[in-house]
Amino acid sequence: MMRPTEDQLLERCRRGDPEAQRELWLTYKDRVYSIALYFFHGDTALAEDVTQDVFIKVLGSLDRFAGRADLSTWLYRIVANACMDEQRRRRRWSFLGELGDALPTAWSEPRPSAIEGLVSDERAKMIRDAIGALSPKLRIAVLMRYFDDLSYEQMADALECSMGTVASRLSRAHADLARRLGHLRDDATGAA
């Protein structure tokens, strides 16, 4: 059986075809979840909630998708907005500031392995923490560029900004990450 085109799949979804909606979910759920997971510092429950919310929004607003951009670009825009909206909502209700700064225990506990594994896990945690400390607009730009390999043009469409703004956000993120993680580079060159 031949796989339907994206337009055919969307039309079937608009008509309420549950099999088409399932196919749309299966095609994009991992990408959406990945962005949400990194955006919220490894909080799996929150990433799952945001992923579900994104698909509810997508399926509820397919009639407004005009097809001027790729479906994936439109979907990334919804993911970015959902992540930032959820963070704003959580910040509003928290007297302690941004919730979710601490990684879940499963991410922060070292696995019983060799010293190299422990060092690698610690470096990965430092990188996750540094990305998590970026402002939401910088964080989502980094995630789209380096975790989903979107082009500047795709990012500009998804974030509803110019490619110059995308470049500026990435440049600021790079500078911030270099400042926060510069010691890792120094450790690597010192060990060589």
Rg, Å, rounded? 19 Å
CATH H level, superfamily name: RNA polymerase sigma factor, region 2, helix turn helix motif
Please tell me the CATH architecture by its name. Orthogonal Bundle
* Number of discrete domains: 1
Number of strands: 0
Order of helices and strands: HHHHHHHHH
Structural class: mainly alpha
Helix percentage: over 70%
Number of helices: 9
Strand content: under 5%
Report the CATH topology name: Rna Polymerase Sigma Factor, Chain: A
Biggest pleated sheet: none
Query: Kindly, what is the distance between the CA atoms of the first and last residues, rounded to a whole number of angstroms?
Result: 55 Å
**Mean pLDDT rating:** 80
Weakly predicted, low-confidence segments: 95-113
Can you characterise this structure?
The chain is mostly helical and 192 residues long. The protein has one domain (6-191): Orthogonal Bundle (Rna Polymerase Sigma Factor, Chain: A), CATH 1.10.1740.10. The protein is 74% helix and 0% strand. The protein contains nine helices and no strands. The chain has helices spanning 6-14, 18-39, 44-60, 71-92, 105-108, 115-133, 136-147, 152-159, 163-191. The radius of gyration is 19 Å and the shape is globular.
